[in-house]
Amino acid sequence: xxxxxxxxxxxxxxxxxxxxxxxxxxxxxxxxxxxFAGEMSELEKSGSEFQTSDQSGMGVDVDVDxxxxxxxxxxxxxxxxxxxxxxxxxxSRLYCGVQNLFWRIVLWFKRQALSGFEVxxxxxxxxxxxxxxxxxxxxxxxxxxxxxxxxxxxxxxxGEKLLIxxxxxxxxxxxxxxxxxxxxxxxxxxxKSLIPSLATVADQSWSYNIKSETTPFLMAFxxxxxxxxxxxxxxxxxxxxxxxxxxxGAFEFFVEVDSKxxxxxxxxxxxxxxxxxxxxxxxFTYESLQSEKGKERLKERIRAELNKELAQGWVKxxxxxxxxxxx
Length: 327
Description:
Elements: H1 2-18, H2 22-32, H3 34-83, H4 86-154, H5 158-183, H6 186-191, E1 226-236, E2 248-257, H7 260-268, H8 270-281, H9 292-309, E3 315-326
Antiparallel strand pairs: 1-2, 2-3
């Protein structure tokens, strides 16, 4: 038993002795052929560097390709979203329409320019010939007319010829006189002898204010004055937005008219016209009636409203006899 078990162990030891590792081969080569071993080590280094760079380069290319594909997909999605936008569709259609209209106008102008050029070219060819023919025709017509007039003049008597030359002379003299009159300012010759103002030749002159120191022609002569009094007119004045109190006013107005008939109409329609004056005064505020401008506006408004209603005559002026206002 012991012999049989010992034989396999011996075979295993002999097999282990026959196997040589890679490090032992490198060591043997370094001892036996050092140059060949150095070349082999350089080849291994260059192979490992090439493999490392190849792997790293492939990774970069893959990343670049992936980034390009991602950007392209994003760009496609953005363009698709933009083209589906109704506002963009409207703007693109409008742009296309404007562009189409622009090119239509350009083509139309081009056709017109070409047609105008053709017409001008044809006119340039025909113009000299046409102008020459027209001049020739006009000259022949003038010569024919001259012969006719000369023949008719030769058939006239001496008295008729004298009458014709008298008419020609009068027409020429009249034309020359008109020309001379238009050339020479005849009116300026007469203005030199006119007196622009009597103040230049008077012994003494005075100055006055036209507005304050003159009287209208209709008022220059004494006339009877006709007036009517509207007494005890009490109204509620126009209320301000910020005021809580009711402003009131009491008035008496003298209305001066141009005729006796107008005064009678005021008296006969006193009730109606009194209501009209009240409605007019109610449109003014307490503050506006405290100034002279406000009072003048009130009188002018009453005068205008009364003139609209009067059938006979007209109101010349309105005067305030009495006025009391309460804020």
